[in-house]
Design a protein that fits this description.
Shape of chain A: globular
Oligomer: heterodimer
Largest interface: A-B, 34 and 33 residues
Structural class of chain A: alpha+beta
Radius of gyration of chain B: 21 Å
CATH architecture of chain A: 2-Layer Sandwich
CATH class of chain A: Alpha Beta
Largest sheet of chain B: none
CATH class of one domain in chain B: Mainly Alpha
Helix content of chain A: 25-40%
Order of helices and strands of chain A: HEEEEHEH
């Protein structure tokens, strides 16, 4: 779940991350609430994405993070992309969007 | 940035051979069970049942557990495996030792063959234990799951040493306690202390993870850990010294621990994020339901031990088969679909994400075959159990045919996953 309000370009990158699907839950990482922050640094041509996983033991964590990097890079070729894995605040069920909950059959 | 589970995982060449050999051994086991169905209508202390039990427990159950643990220990303990080389040597020794031990029991070759094969297995377990204990030592995390795994390894060592002593005692008798009683001791240390305790340690971590269940009450696991181990410890002495009343109490304490774990799992099931269960998880939950039957039987045997040696010889066979086929085998088959596709998927597609079109882990196997396997296996298990209770050889044979078919389905998917090639997906490269 986002920890701050994003600017227009950052919001665009955030929306593009809907292309990254958690292969276990079959829900995109944005609707799962795994993406905490997207920071765009025009000056240094850097994009910094902070995200978490549903569990520290998630066997697909590395792959999901690589996918985030590739998707972001594909629409921002000139930028260096960095993905940070963070565990605070811990991911909870409340982080899932209404759409995500519908896909998971929780509504 | 913190490290993530897959970065600590060992190379696939450590894990995959365990699954390959395990799957084939299971197939051989079901065929041999069909050929020796009559032995299931007799007392459990007969060469065929001894051979089949050791083939199943060592060649299938322990084989897959070793392989899966090498992948899962780094996830649970958040550290790398101590030694991949030790794991590979242990695998070879376990394979050779199991085949020799099975042949020795099948032909009732006592003495040198039996003791030699027992020594090979003991060595394999020793290497495995060194690997687990040193990995545990290098892990900084403190968790109840880690305690379960560590303690189960100690029980495994005890079980194997006890087995070696039994092999010597069977060839050159030197112990005053009846061999049958010692066999019960060996079997319960192995099934409860090693296998079930390990299932609890690993399952309590990965099953909530697969279900995406958060905020679990770990007090149930702590209760389960202390009750199972104290109950088993006292129970082992009670069997050895024939303290009947204390054995009843000890059995009751172990059962309480098992029920606490089942209650933990039910909680995970109830609060899970992922509502729809895939075939692997469905089969896993059916197997936990089946565990309730041997729990009932153990209570029955504890209150009336004469049952086991009089009218209840079929019940004692059902007790063992329900635990090892109905519960453990079914659970391993189910969990194979949850672990192996991820291992292969990471091996094949790591580094290709976002560059080529890649399948989902569950697309590495045929889901319809997995569903058919579950139904055929459950039917076979029910028929075999009915055949044992009714002492009907032909009914057991019919059930075994179902089990063979289920195992063929399992091996089909196992091979399909292991030998998955990415070329069909690479062709659709975006």
């Amino acid at each position: 779940m986002l920890q701050r309000t994003l600017n227009t370009k950052e919001q665009e990158i955030f929306e593009s991350l809907k292309a990254v699907i958690d292969p276990e839950l079959m829900v995109n990482i944005v609707d799962l609430g795994l993406v905490y922050d997207v920071r765009l640094d025009f000056e240094n041509k850097k994009i910094n994405i902070s995200m978490t996983l549903t569990s520290p033991g998630c066997p697909l964590g590395e792959v999901i993070m690589e996918d985030v990097k590739q998707v972001t890079k594909s629409i921002n070729a000139d930028f260096e992309v960095e993905v940070n894995l963070i565990w605070e605040p811990a991911w909870t069920l409340d982080s899932i969007s209404e759409k995500g909950k519908n896909i998971l059959g929780r509504n | 940035m913190q490290s993530i589970a897959s970065q600590n995982a060992p190379g696939p060449s450590v894990i995959i051979p365990h699954f390959l050999v395990g799957g084939l051994v299971l197939l051989v086991f079901t065929v041999l069970l069909f050929l020796s169905a009559e032995s299931l209508t007799q007392h459990f202390f007969n060469p065929k049942i001894l051979a089949l039990t050791h083939l199943l427990v060592l060649g299938w159950i322990t084989m897959i557990i070793f392989g899966a643990l090498y992948q899962l220990i780094p996830v649970i303990m958040e550290t790398k495996l101590f030694s991949e080389l030790l794991a590979k040597i242990s695998f070879i020794l376990l394979t050779v030792g199991t085949l020799l031990l099975t042949l020795s029991f099948w032909n009732f070759w006592l003495g040198t063959y039996l003791i030699f094969s027992g020594c090979i297995i003991t060595l394999s377990v020793l290497l495995f234990s060194i690997n687990v204990l040193f990995t545990t030592r290098s892990s900084k995390i403190k968790s109840i799951e880690k305690k379960f795994i560590f303690t189960s390894t100690i029980w495994l060592g005890f079980t194997v040493l006890m087995g070696l002593i039994l092999a010597i005692n069977l060839s050159f008798p030197f112990l005053s306690t009846p061999h049958i009683e010692l066999l019960k001791l060996h079997a319960h240390a192995g099934i409860v202390g090693w296998i079930i305790q390990l299932i609890i340690g690993v399952g309590s971590k990965i099953l909530p993870m697969f279900l995406v269940a958060h905020g679990m009450n770990k007090k149930k696991l702590v209760f389960s850990y202390y009750t199972i181990n104290s109950g088993l410890f006292v129970g082992i002495f009670s069997i050895y010294f024939s303290w009947h009343f204390i054995l009843i109490l000890a059995s009751g304490v172990v059962v309480l621990g098992l029920l606490a774990f089942l209650s933990y799992l039910y909680e995970a099931y109830r609060i899970r994020v992922k509502k729809k269960l895939d075939p692997g998880m469905k089969q896993s939950f059916v197997s936990f339901f089946i565990l309730l039957f041997p729990i009932l039987l153990v209570l029955l045997f504890s209150f009336d031990p004469d049952l086991i040696s009089s009218l209840s010889i079929p019940l004692s066979i059902v007790y063992g088969s329900t635990l090892m086929i109905g519960f453990i085998t079914s659970l391993i088959m189910g969990q194979t679909y949850k672990t192996l596709p991820f291992i292969i998927w990471l091996k094949v597609y790591r580094g290709h994400v976002g560059k080529i079109k890649i399948p989902l882990p569950k697309e590495l196997y045929n889901e319809n075959i997995a569903i058919a396997q579950r139904w055929v296996f459950n039917s076979g298990f029910i028929i075999v159990t009915g055949g044992i209770l009714l002492v009907q050889k032909d009914v057991i044979k019919t059930g075994c045919l179902f089990l063979i078919l289920a195992t063929l389905f399992y091996n089909f998917n196992l091979f399909k996953i292991i030998f998955h090639k990415p070329k069909t997906y690479a062709a659709t490269n975006a």
